[in-house]
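Lab notes, practical 5.
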Amino acid sequence: MKKALFLSLIIFGSFLSADALMNAVLSDDRDPKNVLRDDARNPYETLSFFKITDEMEVIELSPGGGWYTEILANYLYKSGGLIAAHFDEDTTSNFLKKIRKNFEKKMNSNSIYQNVEIVDLSSELSEPNSVDAVLTFRNLHNWLGPMMDNIFANSYEALKPGGIFGVVEHRAKPGTSLQEMKRTGYVTEQYAVEEAEKHGFILFAKSEINANSKDTKNYSKGVWTLPPTLRLKEKNKEDYLAIGESDRMTLLFKKPSK
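Output from the prediction step:
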C-alpha cells in the first residue's frame, strides 16, 4: 500500500520528502491494521481537500479508536495542535467509557501524541474563535437529533471566522427518512448540508474522493454489514468484502469570515 501510494505521488509530481502530510500518512507510528484501510479512506486526498495544513489548530470530533488521530497528531506535531473531542468522561455507558479509556491509553503509548488534548464531545470544545478546523469522519449518523445540534453549534463557536468544518459521512440515497437513517447508519447529503447551514456554516465544496458506486445501501444490518465491521460475520462475507467500505460524501463547509 505505501509503495503504491508513493508511486502514485511521483506520477502526479509530488515531492515526498517535502510533504509533511504524506510523511504522516506513511509514518511507521501508525497501526499496520489502520494502514490497510487507506485505500478505502483516502486520508491524504481527504485532508488535502479539507485544506488542512501542518500549522493549524484542529479539533477532531469523536475520534473513536484514533484512525485519523494517528495521522493528524503526527502531521500537526511540530507547528499545529490537535484537540480530540471524545465520548464524555462521565458517560454512563460502559461501552463508550471503554472506547474512551482505550483511546486515552493509545494517546499515552507514543510521544507523537503528547500534544493531543482530550475533551468531552458535549463540551464547548475550545475557546470561542480559537481553532482553524473541525473535522469529523463517519459520525453524523450517531448524532441525529439534538446531539447534532449541540455538536454543530459548539463546533461553529470554536472555529475562527473563515475556519473549516470538514465532514465525511456514509451517504444515504436521496429521500431516505430520518428513521431509516438512524436504522441504517447512512445519512442523506441534503440532511447533512441543511443541518450545517442551520448552524451558520456555508457549503464551500464537496468531493467524490470517498465515493463507492458498488455500495447498494440496502443491507439488513445497515452500513455495519460492510467492512470493517462485517456485522453478519461469515454470511456473504466475500460479497461484502468485494463491495468494500461504504459510499461516503465528503463535504467542506466554512464559518463565514467577518
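Observations recorded by the TA: The beta strands are 57-61, 81-86, 116-120, 131-137, 159-170, 202-207, 248-254. The domain at 44-216+245-254 is CATH 3.40.50.150 (Rossmann fold).
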